[in-house]
Amino acid sequence: MSKSDTYTVLRISDFRNFLLGRFFGVVGTQIQAVIVGWQIYELTSDPLSLGLIGLAEVIPATFVALFAGHLADKISRRTIVLYTFFMLFLCSLSLLILSLGQLQNLEHPTYPFYIIIFISGIARGFLGASMSSLMAQLVPRELYHSSSAWNSSGWQIASVSGPFLGGLLYHINGPVLAYTLDVGLMFLAVLFFFYVKPKPIPEKKNSESLLESLSVGFKFVFKNNIVLSALSLDMFAVLFGGAVALLPIFASDILMVGPEGLGILRAAPSVGAAVMALFLAHFPPRENAGKSLLFSVFGFGITIICFANSTNFYLSLFFLFLSGVFDSVSVIVRSTIIQLFTPDEMRGRVAAVNSIFIGSSNELGAFESGISAKFMGTIPSVVFGGCMTLLVVSITSYFSPHLRKLNFSEQTKK
User: Fold this and answer.
1) All domains of the chain, ordered by start, with CATH?
2) In the chain, what is the straight-line distance between the N-terminal and C-terminal CA atoms, in Å?
3) CA distances from 150 to 243, 267, 275, 324 (A)
4) Is 191 exposed, middle or buried, given 0-12, 13-18 or 19+ CB atoms closer than 10 A?
5) 10-residue block means of pLDDT along the chain (414 residues)?
6) 3-class SS shares of the chain: helix, strand, coil, % to 5
7) Rounded to an integer, what is the distance from CA 134 to the centroid of its chain?
8) What is the torsional sign of CA 31, 32, 35, 38?
9) Distance between CA atoms of residues 34 and 26, nearest Å
10) CB atoms within 10 A of CB 107
11) How far apart, in whole angstroms, are the C-alpha atoms of residue 314 and residue 304?
């Protein structure tokens, strides 16, 4: 791909505002994730309490996802994004107020944290259905692979910055300073999405009842072998292979590096992912996209197993970095598959199914990690998850020859 092709998508002002809004929003949510995880583990010393953070977010996100997808194909996707980021702004503000109370030595149970996380899960359910479908309206079809790569790059760079800033600020001045920055970043996210111009609502070809509309996304995914295989592969890899939810335990009890070390550990996968995403923005996996997806998820599983067995902080960082490298390939290929194969009038509903498959598996994976760590121990649970990821890749590769042969160059010409 030529340099002009690589940077053409960045010359589209709406896409730039989209990238900046998402960047600031992700930095804020990543700061929040580090601080909430550390605060709750500090209050409870229970690995299950970390898993419950994920469960508190995934239940509402999954519950509203299908209706959110229906809404994203019925009203302005930009409007949905604006309202949901404003809700996330209010959640960040609430966490700041809670932490101010904690600073004043007020009684501080953990349930208010879970309530706020539950509310943010509702917002995330609507956001998951509207973000990718809005992005597809901002760029032409031939630039989908480029927009996916740049979008992933921005997300990963934000995911590097957020944990690092969260851990550092917590180390310097506790949670209040970190949450203050989180609130400011969420406000900036709202501001940049406000400057994305409204886009037309896609015209539906057939009239549908609410029940039919809600089921469209699932019907489309389960009829398309390539989309179903890509989503299933990523879902089970994230469900079993994630170790992020247990990083407070690794930082506190195994590697002995404290909250600032936790921030660096959380940032390491995103550093690797950002490096790979920038590489793929210039050299996208066009001809061997399916094989690249399978190889990357297999590599992800291997690096998670290696991380679990490391007791050296720098070696652990290296393995987390590699896990991000492999995960970035998977994310970009999957998001490009969804954009290329999904008709515009059902993007919101298919994105909702994607959020159920992938987004929810992050939190369910966090809950699975907490449960398995509780009963198996931290290190064995992460090794088990990595082995399950390798098994899932092997099964998907065998049963989905269409995915193995996927070629993006052929699809962009259609």
Assistant:
1) 3-195+209-412 (1.20.1250.20)
2) 18
3) 25, 19, 11, 16
4) middle
5) 64 91 92 84 74 79 82 86 94 88 60 89 86 85 78 80 82 84 94 90 66 75 82 75 76 82 81 84 75 88 90 92 88 82 79 72 67 80 86 84 73 52
6) 85, 0, 15
7) 17
8) negative
9) 12
10) 6
11) 15
Kindly state the tokens that stand for 220: 């489309």
Closest among 271, 22, 240, 32 to 148, alpha carbons compared: 22
The Cα 250–Cα 247 span in angstroms is 5
DSSP-derived letter for residue 71 is H
Amino acid in position 339: Q
pLDDT per residue as tens digits for the range 353-386:
777 776 656 666 666 677 777 788 888 888 888 8
Query: What would the DSSP string read from start to end of 136-197?
Result: HHHS-GGGHHHHHHHHHHHHHHHHHHHHHHHHHHHHHH-HHHHHHHHHHHHHHHHHHHHTSP
Residue 154: half-sphere exposure toward Cβ, Cα within 13 Å: 18
Q: Report the run of H or E that residue 283 belongs to, with start and end.
A: none
Please name the amino acid found at residue 142. Answer: E
Identity of the amino acid at 229: S
pLDDT at position 359, please?
63
* Letter string b/e over residues 215-232, b meaning 16 or more CB atoms within 10 A of that residue's CB: ebbbebbeebebbbbbbb
Q: How far is 161 from 23, CA to CA, in rounded Å?
A: 10
Backbone angles phi, psi at 369, to 5 degrees: -65, -45
Distances (CA, A) of 78 to 138, 140, 204, 329: 11, 17, 18, 27
Distance CA 302, CA 307 (A): 9
| Cα maximum dimension of the chain | 63
H helix count then E strand count, the chain: 18, 0
